[in-house]
C-alpha cells in the first residue's frame, strides 16, 4: 500500500486490565491463557518487560469500580463468568511496574467518582516521580450504576452531568499540578536551612459546586506536572471533553469508516477548543490473530472461537448501557436503545451493522470480531495502513490470551511494522509526553491546564507572613 517514507509510525499500547476477563469474555479458559493469574505480580512484570523490550509505547490499564448492570436478572452471572470481577487496583500495580521498567509508559484508568481530586493528584504526582515521568491518566466518569452506589451515589448520574463533574474535577487537579508549586520553589539549601520558599508555594483555594480545596499541593511537581492525559469517551459530549483535555483518545471502532467519521468530529471539536489535530493522538482498540499463512491464521481464529463466550460479551455490553440483555435469544434485535450508560458503545454497534438494527449476536460479533484483524503479518499491516489513512495514530492492542497474544504480535506483526518503518526500534529519552509528542515534558500553552501556571503566586506572596527575602 503506502511507502514507509510517507507514513508516521504507529504508537503501540497494550490494552490490559488487572482482572481475568477483560474484553473478550471466556478466553481465560483457553489452555494457554495465564490471565487467571492476574493477582500474581510475576505475570505483569514479565509482560511489562517483554513489551518494553519490544519498544511498546505504553501499558494501558482499564478499570471499573463496580459491577456491571444486571444480567439474567441479577449480578450472579458476572461472578460465575469472572466478568471483570474480581478486579484489582491498577494504581497499586503500576507502582510495582514503575520499579521494574525504565521507559514504557504506565497508563491507568481512574474515575472522577472514586477519589477526591486532592488525594488523587497527590497519588499521581508521586507515581510520576517514582516512574520518572511515565504516568498517564485515563479520565473516565463511570457508566456503571453500581460504581456510583459504591461511592455514596443514589443512582447513575446523567450522562452529560457526569462530564460536568469531570470538568470541575480536572480543573481542581490542574490547579494543584500546575499552579501550586512554582519551578524554583524547592531550595533544599542545607547551609541556610531553607527547604522551600513559601512565597513560591501557593494555595489554590478552589471553590466549586462539588469540591472545596485550599491546598497547597502536598507533592512536589513531577517531571510532567500534569500526567499524560487519555480519555476514551466516544459520545458527542465525550468527544468534546477529549478535544478540550485529552492528549490521546481511543475508540472501539468497527471499521475505518467509523474512525474517519469520529476523526472529523474530533478535529472540529479541537478547533472549537483552541487546539489542533496535532495536539492529540487517536488510538483504535484492535485485536490480532496472526499466522505465517492465511490458513494458519484462520485455524488459530477458529481455536479462539471455541473459548469465546458470547453471553459474557453480551453481559459486558448490556451492563455498560444499563440494560439486562440476559435470557434473550441471541437473534433478538436490540433496537434503538436510549440510555444514560455508554452511549458511544451503542453508536458504534449500530454503525457496525449498517442498514438494520443489530441483534444481540451482532453486538457480540461487533465486540469480538469487528475490531479483530486476522491474517499474515503482511495482510495485517496492509489493513493497518487503511486504518491509519482513516485517522489512527496508535493501536490499543486487545488480547485474547496473556501473554500469548502479545507474543504473537511481537514475533509476527512487529517485524513487518519495522520493515515498513511503522514502529519504533528505540525509545526517545524523556517523559511519556516527550516520547509521544517530542516537544517537552510539560503540557503546551494551548492546553486548559496551562492557564493555572503562575496565577496563584501573587496572592500567595501577599499572604505569606514572612517571605524568603524578608528573612534575608
From TrEMBL:
Which is an annotated Pfam family here?
Bac_luciferase
Q: Which domain of life is it from?
A: Bacteria
Name the UniProt key words of this record, in alphabetical order. Flavoprotein, FMN, Monooxygenase, Oxidoreductase
Query: What positions does the domain Luciferase-like occupy?
Result: 33-393
Write the protein's name.
Answer: Luciferase-like monooxygenase
Taxonomy-wise, where does this protein's organism fall, top ranks first? Bacteria, Bacillati, Actinomycetota, Actinomycetes, Micrococcales
State the family named in the UniProt similarity comment for this chain.
Answer: Belongs to the NtaA/SnaA/DszA monooxygenase family.
Amino acid at each position: 500500500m503506502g511507502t514507509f517514507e510517507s507514513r508516521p509510525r504507529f504508537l503501540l499500547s497494550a490494552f490490559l486490565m488487572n482482572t481475568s476477563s477483560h474484553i473478550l469474555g471466556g478466553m481465560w479458559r483457553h489452555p494457554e491463557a495465564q490471565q487467571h493469574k492476574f493477582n500474581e505480580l510475576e505475570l505483569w512484570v514479565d509482560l511489562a518487560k517483554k513489551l518494553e523490550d519490544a519498544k511498546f509505547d505504553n501499558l494501558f490499564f482499564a478499570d471499573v469500580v463496580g459491577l456491571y448492570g444486571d444480567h439474567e436478572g441479577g449480578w450472579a452471572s458476572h461472578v460465575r463468568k469472572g466478568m471483570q470481577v474480581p478486579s484489582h487496583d491498577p494504581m497499586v500495580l503500576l507502582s510495582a511496574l514503575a520499579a521494574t521498567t525504565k521507559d514504557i509508559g504506565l497508563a491507568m484508568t481512574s474515575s472522577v467518582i472514586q477519589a477526591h481530586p486532592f488525594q488523587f493528584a497527590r497519588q499521581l504526582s508521586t507515581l510520576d516521580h517514582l516512574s520518572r515521568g511515565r504516568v498517564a491518566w485515563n479520565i473516565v466518569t463511570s457508566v456503571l450504576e453500581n460504581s456510583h452506589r459504591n461511592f455514596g451515589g443514589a443512582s447513575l448520574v446523567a450522562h452529560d452531568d457526569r462530564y460536568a463533574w469531570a470538568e470541575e474535577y480536572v480543573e481542581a487537579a490542574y490547579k494543584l499540578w500546575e499552579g501550586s508549586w512554582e519551578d524554583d520553589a524547592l531550595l533544599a539549601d542545607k547551609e541556610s536551612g531553607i527547604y522551600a520558599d513559601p512565597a513560591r508555594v501557593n494555595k489554590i483555594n478552589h471553590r466549586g459546586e462539588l469540591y472545596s480545596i485550599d491546598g497547597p499541593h502536598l507533592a512536589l511537581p513531577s517531571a510532567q506536572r500534569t500526567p499524560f492525559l487519555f480519555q476514551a469517551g466516544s459520545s458527542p459530549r465525550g468527544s468534546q471533553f477529549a478535544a478540550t483535555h485529552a492528549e490521546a483518545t481511543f475508540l472501539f471502532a468497527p471499521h475505518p469508516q467509523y474512525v474517519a467519521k469520529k476523526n472529523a468530529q474530533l478535529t472540529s471539536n479541537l478547533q472549537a477548543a483552541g487546539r489542533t489535530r496535532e495536539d492529540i493522538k487517536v488510538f483504535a482498540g484492535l485485536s490480532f490473530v496472526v499466522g505465517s499463512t492465511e490458513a494458519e491464521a484462520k485455524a488459530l481464529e477458529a481455536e479462539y472461537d471455541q473459548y469465546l463466550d458470547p453471553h459474557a460479551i453480551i453481559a459486558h455490553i448490556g451492563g455498560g448501557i444499563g440494560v439486562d440483555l440476559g435470557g434473550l435469544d441471541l437473534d433478538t434485535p436490540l433496537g434503538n436503545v436510549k440510555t444514560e450508560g455508554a452511549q458511544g458503545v451503542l453508536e458504534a454497534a449500530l454503525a457496525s451493522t449498517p442498514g438494520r438494527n443489530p441483534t444481540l449476536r451482532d453486538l457480540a460479533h461487533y465486540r469480538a470480531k469487528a475490531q479483530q484483524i486476522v491474517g499474515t503479518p503482511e495482510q495485517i499491516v496492509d489493513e493497518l495502513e487503511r486504518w491509519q489513512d482513516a485517522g489512527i495514530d496508535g493501536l490499543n492492542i486487545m488480547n485474547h490470551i496473556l501473554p500469548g497474544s502479545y507474543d504473537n504480535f511481537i514475533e509476527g506483526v512487529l517485524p513487518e511494522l519495522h520493515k515498513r518503518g511503522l514502529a519504533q526500534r528505540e525509545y526517545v529519552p524523556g517523559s511519556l509526553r516527550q516520547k509521544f509528542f517530542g516537544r517537552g515534558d510539560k503540557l503546551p500553552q494551548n492546553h486548559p491546564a496551562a492557564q493555572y501556571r503562575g496565577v496563584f503566586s501573587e496572592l500567595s506572596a501577599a499572604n505569606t507572613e514572612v517571605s524568603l527575602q524578608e528573612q534575608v
